[in-house]
Specification:
Length: about 120
């Protein structure tokens, strides 16, 4: 049985993947696990590999979804991406991290904010 948080999180990831596809991205993989954590979505566009962290909230009463991508979380994402790049050397040298913040709930309209190249 899925919790409310899991249902909302899955909906947010599905919504983000649909958003990317509708905006010319190719979704290559979802929920990629490594020893350092999980990458929600790996996509590509115009020869660029994009590691996407999706953050979903039902509302921003306490904080906006993107606020939860802390420096510590960024370090985990970077380590997970390095693992992926080592395992997939064909991926190339051009890559970036994006955050997609989704606000809403299943069955409702989603508010999507896409933050590009968030880790430098």
């Amino acid at each position: 049985m899925s919790t409310h948080t899991q249902v909302v999180g899955r909906w947010g990831e599905d919504t983000a993947a649909q958003y990317l596809a509708a905006n010319g991205y190719t979704v290559l993989a979802r929920n990629v696990h490594s020893a350092h954590g999980e990458i929600d979505i790996i996509a590509s566009k115009d020869g660029l590999l994009i590691f996407v962290e999706v953050k979903t909230r039902s509302s921003h009463t306490f904080a906006y979804p993107e606020d939860s991508v802390t420096r510590r979380k960024q370090a985990y994402l970077l380590s997970a991406a390095e693992d992926y790049l080592q395992a997939h050397p064909e991926s190339g040298d051009s890559w970036q991290f994006d955050v997609i913040a989704v606000e809403g709930a299943p069955g409702g309209k989603a508010q999507i904010d896409h933050f590009e190249n968030v880790i430098e």
